[in-house]
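Hi team,

As requested, here is the filled-out complex form for the uracil run. I kept the field names the same as last time so the parser does not choke. Let me know if anything looks off before we queue the next batch.

— J.
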Amino acid sequence: MGKIRLDKYLADMGLGTRTEVKKKIRKGQISVNGMVIKEPEYKTDTETDVVLADNQPLSYETMEYYMLNKPQGVVSATEDRKEKTVLDLILSKKRKDLFPVGRLDKDTEGLLLITNDGALAHQLLSPKKHVDKQYFVRLSKPLEKEDAKKLETGVDIGEDTLTMPAKIVYTGQSEEEVLITIQEGKYHQVKRMFQAVGNQVVFLKRLSMGSLKLDETLKPGEYRLLTQEEIARLREHAGTDKSSDF
Ligand code: URA
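And here is what came back:
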């Protein structure tokens, strides 16, 4: 990113508002390359300068990528006046411009990517890209084989066209539990698809999105950073490559 003002560096990394971080700087709590800097406008190199706040080293991140196992009861939004949001769960976030890539319903669990990489999000969500999303579904009654076939062909959920062909796999645990893979992401899509064949989703959990798989060691409400490999594969899969896009 190059050089930016020291107060912006600190505010971007979540150390407080611009006013709060200016106070820290003036109080002598911040050093750059071993020297206490008291000027908020000091030009800081985000790549090479060593910045300490109260003797703790900071590292400047322009992009953050988190995998959240979304629990039930939180909304897929950045802010909400009444409800707890998925962003409220990411306690270690540095950037203030993070958002969830797509939405899961309040009562849906599972994989949610949270980032500030708008280009990647756009690629993953673009209907033209046909990115696979796999869900575990528990139904109110067994899924008949003919109904599974209908879902695999396309069903009427009240849109202009039938849904695109889905893939259904029985988990083998019970006839009420299936995995469904879809490439679309319309509002309540999975619930509406099962409704269209006279069934009802009683539990829904997203397991994957493109190449990204839910890390099953994450309990609902837990999250972790994506690995470099996961980020690279996701970009490759979604057809985005920073070096060629920008
Ligand atoms: N389909 C739904 O119906 N709900 C979700 O949360 C995700 C997909």
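Two things worth flagging: The longest helix spans residues 228-237. Confidence is low (pLDDT under 50) at residues 240-246.

Thanks,
J.
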